[in-house]
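Researcher: Go.
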Amino acid sequence: MSKFLAKIPAILCSIGIFYFSSLPQAPFVMSTFQWQDKFLHFFAYLFYGCTLSLAIHVHDTNQYKKNILWIILIGCLYAVSDEFHQSFVPGRTSEIGDIIADCLGIVCATIVYRYIVLRTSKVL
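Model: Structure:
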């Protein structure tokens, strides 16, 4: 049962990203500085990567290097699919810069994940 519960944050985060991408206007972008939307993408996917890390690590605790590859693969594929989905939403555009910011957030989440795994496990 705990393996299922560990996946709930990643599922909810996926649904949240999809929901906000479905809106005709991004609700959080206030144009306070030039790259604000990229920072929002980065931090949203940093959080998403952390939830993926939790979900994947609980499933396979002994293979953290393999887990990192899965986190990056799933997160970046979701970022690409999200931008593709967003290209069909009226009033929204799809940008390669958003995908890059998303993937950087996922990679940074794996760095956090690696740090936590190494700090809590003496086996690695």
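Model: The radius of gyration is 15 Å.
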